[in-house]
Amino acid sequence: MKKIKIGYLYSIKKNIDIADKLVIIKDLYDNPIIEEVDENNKSIYDIIFIFGGDGFMLAAMHKLLNNTSPLYGINCGNIGFLMNNDFISYENFINNKYKKYIIKPLSVTFFDNSNTKIASKVAFNEFVMIRKEYRTINMKVKINDISKIIEINGDGLIAATAIGSHAYNKSASGILLPLHSDHTVMTLLNPYKYNIKNKSILLNSEDEIEIFYNNQEADTRPMQIYIDHCSIDIDEISKIKITLSSNIFSKLLYNIDNDLKFKILQSQIN
């Protein structure tokens, strides 16, 4: 029988006894091939174990963008929304008795005053643009070519994927999306002035958000951008385009008794 090839990543912040975890893997999977993974490793694994919390799982999804191996998170943090509580058994794994989800990120592109592309990122959870100091920020937002310009003065906005809609977006009273949804949601953060009916807007997979920011106000009304909890420092941003990616994805695996779909439902009820 062919040996299972297993990769792993672990958070150094969580004081994880990785040697102990590897012993468990060897016992569970009949002495498999085991390798620590990095972003330069293009090897395809039967499964990659991620040991950490939700933030580390998001970091791993970014780190392994070019690796299509399925990821299985083991919670070593606090909430563990994206994680499993324990290992999947050898029998369940080889017999495909697990849940698999394809997670598509937001594609975020930044432009300067001359409309030149200066950077691009992906957000599996959320894009956040928020005021940096006490003064509110001014933004103009356009959704697709035919929509009216939305003028906003407030703390900022969130653009979230289906899984991200249950994070910061939820605490901002944004629309919650089911896991298999190809929709995204845009939610305004404490808007003082805005010319739309709802503070949270449901968008289809092909919809494109354009955010216009007057960077001449950067000194008097500074803003900060976060993508999946990480701050993004890019000078002279004038425009940002956001849409759901069609060609980038991450595969997450879950034990049947720890299904992410159930967690999503629970999040909407509790």
Question: Mind explaining what this structure looks like?
Answer:
By secondary structure, the chain is α+β, with helices and mostly antiparallel strands. The chain has 2 domains: 5-104 and 249-269, Probable inorganic polyphosphate/atp-NAD kinase, domain 1 (Rossmann fold, 3-Layer(aba) Sandwich); 106-244, Sandwich (Tumour Suppressor Smad4). 15% of the residues lie in helices and 36% in strands. It has helices at residues 18-28, 54-63, 90-94, 168-171, 260-269, and strands at 5-10, 33-36, 47-52, 71-75, 99-103, 106-111, 117-123, 126-131, 137-143, 150-154, 156-160, 184-189, 193-194, 200-203, 209-212, 223-227, 230-232, 239-244, 250-254. The strands form 4 sheets. The protein has a 7-stranded antiparallel beta sheet, with no helix packed on it. Strand 6 (106-111) and strand 7 form a beta hairpin. The longest helix has 11 residues, at 18-28. The chain is elongated. The protein starts with a strand and ends with a helix. The mean pLDDT is 90.
